[in-house]
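BUG: 3D viewer hangs when loading the predicted structure for this chain

Environment: internal workstation, default settings.
Expected: structure renders.
Actual: progress bar stalls at 90%.

Input used:
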Amino acid sequence: MIDELEKDGWYLSSQKGSHKHFRHPEKKGKVQVPDHGNVTLKSKTAKSILKQAGIN
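Structure tokens produced before the viewer hung:
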């Protein structure tokens, strides 16, 4: 998930606990990604993150 965001130009702006916050230089808003080690994200969560990031 994080690799896909970074390929699209998103960068890590901050981290609070196990959640990483990404920003994009041109797109509005911030995307929050849970990072719990090797735990796989649920598909609905992953789709929601990609939708927020404007990645289809």
